[in-house]
Specification:
Layout lengths: L8 H19 L4 E2 L2 E2 L1 E4 L4 E4 L2 E3 L4 H22 L2 H5 L2 H18 L2 H9 L4 H30 L1 H9 L6 H21 L2 H6 L1 H9 L6 E4 L1 H4 L11 H6 L10 H4 L20 H13 L6 E4 L1 H6 L7 H22 L4 E7 L6 E2 L5 E11 L5 E9 L2 E5 L4 E3 L4 E10 L8 E10 L2 E11 L4
Antiparallel strand pairs: 1-2, 3-4, 4-5, 6-7, 8-10, 9-10, 10-14, 11-13, 11-15, 12-14, 15-16
């Protein structure tokens, strides 16, 4: 595919917007909120950070709701605005069209020059151009692969992999090489086919779009019947002989990175990159017709001149979105910084002490979800008795889980026959963080 270079207002806006997105993408791993990264998806360590908030496996319900919320937003957004995301914000499109494609134009020239170069025999100039292009693509793919890896393991760990002897980080290095090769393959060879053959979002769009969705559309009512423009022919002359504004120049097709003809209607391959809109606007300006023969519009907008309508489907999605968003807000708002679980030590029975008291052994696990060290205190609240933490005080390192054995002793007078409910409290600086309920096993009488 040799899409021609495009220029126009949408391309200009997309370029500016892509600079902002690229800046966020490359700076993202280094931005921290309260000492935590902006975004980290460490699947290996089952640790996820979103906007500085750490989510542990215990928070999976919050994570599941967040994913549902994200999917619902995507559905609503796509139903209303089509694949706006693909054209303007998808990292694949931004990197491909705004970085790799621009570099390719810079080194090899516009589409006709690229075609000529590929058909030309291998001489020094061609070898030099091809080597420099692929060397730059390799270096950029390595950079993009490392950025992605730093969103998974954090940039500090990435730096360790880069600076330490290779043998010490074989797994990390393998991922680094795999990501770099993957991105090189996508941006140098596979390109928009990733959007049409691999990306599930692209494949779903046909289900999500309806006749009120805003898409990149050709106004066939205004454009047809298409015919080439004769010398000195005016638009009113064309009108009078039943011709539309489309002058069959094929500019819209020649700039399309997926090689489709938007005049055939909305197609799955269209990534809404707006290139055909710019190309056609340039043609319309030249022939003195109004711009927007290819524009953002809905099918109903073109057929009946209707604007975006709020359909029952959109309202339904909106209600689901509001419920999920409220649920998520409540769960995040009421989420504690510390989460503790207390379980009876496996295989342990009750013990009678020399003073006649009985004891049970438990395992206490505490997860510290914050980025600071968390000294906590465990108190036996009901019934009266005592407890002893094995291994000293409870200080949980930041973003870690601690495990301690806890020995609880009760006076027989406070115990029920066989099984006594026990309540313990987890405190920090005198403030109760959590209550733990468990059973204390004793003799039956
Ligand atoms: S660029 Fe516009 S005028 Fe030219 S073929 Fe495409 S739709 Fe028709
Ligand atoms: S038809 Fe092609 S050029 Fe036009 S928006 Fe879709 S992908 Fe881009």
């Amino acid at each position: 595919m040799y899409p021609r270079k495009v220029s126009g207002q949408f391309y200009r806006w997309r370029t500016w917007f892509s600079w902002l997105l690229l800046a966020i993408m490359f700076a993202g791993p280094f931005i921290t909120i309260k000492g935590n990264p902006l975004l980290m998806m460490n699947i290996g360590e089952r640790k996820f950070v979103v906007l500085g908030q750490i989510f542990w496996p215990q928070d999976m319900i919050i994570f599941a709701i967040a994913i549902l919320l994200f999917l619902t937003s995507v559905i609503i957004f796509t139903t209303a605005f089509g694949r706006l995301w693909c054209g303007w914000a998808c990292p694949q499109t931004v990197m491909m069209e705004m970085v790799f494609r621009k570099l390719e134009y810079l080194i090899e020239g516009d589409a006709p020059r690229q075609r000529e170069l590929n058909q030309a025999p291998w001489d020094v100039a061609k070898i030099a151009k091809k080597i420099s292009k692929h060397a730059i693509f390799c270096a950029l793919s390595f950079l993009v692969g490392n950025v992605l890896l730093s969103y998974i393991i954090g940039w500090q760990q990435l730096m360790q992999i880069v600076t330490a002897p290779p043998a010490r980080h074989l797994v990390g290095l393998s991922f680094m090489v795999a990501f770099s090769l993957l991105f090189y393959g996508i941006f140098a060879r596979f390109r928009e086919q990733a959007c049409t053959f691999i990306c599930p979002y692209g494949r779903f769009q046909s289900v999500l779009l309806d006749e009120n969705s805003i898409v990149v559309a050709y106004d066939h009512k205004r454009g047809e019947k298409r015919a080439p423009l004769k010398r000195d022919q005016t638009t009113s002359e064309r009108d009078s002989i039943g011709l539309g504004d489309c002058v069959a120049c094929n500019q819209c097709v020649s700039v399309c990175p997926t090689g489709i003809d938007i005049r055939d209607g909305t197609q799955m391959e269209c990534v809404h990159c707006t290139a055909c809109m710019d190309a056609c606007d340039n043609v319309m300006t030249k022939i003195g017709a109004s711009r927007g023969l290819i524009r953002y519009a809905s099918l109903n907008g073109i057929e009946r001149g209707e604007h975006l309508r709020v359909t029952p489907r959109l309202i339904g999605y909106g209600v689901v979105l509001t419920v999920l968003a409220s649920l998520l807000a409540v769960m995040i708002f009421t989420r504690t910084d510390v989460e503790a679980t207390l379980l009876r030590a496996p295989g342990s029975l009750f013990q009678q002490m020399p003073d006649g008291h009985y004891s049970n052994l438990y395992t206490l696990r505490i997860t510290n979800k914050t980025a600071r060290e968390m000294p906590v205190e465990l108190r036996l609240e009901r019934p009266a008795g005592s407890l002893q933490i094995m291994g000293g005080s409870l200080v949980v390192p930041p973003q870690k889980q601690s495990e301690n054995s806890v020995l609880v002793e009760l006076d027989p007078a406070a115990m029920h026959s066989g099984n006594t409910p026990v309540i313990l409290g987890v405190y920090q600086n005198g403030k109760k963080l959590q209550s733990l309920k468990t059973a204390f096993i004793g003799p039956r009488y």
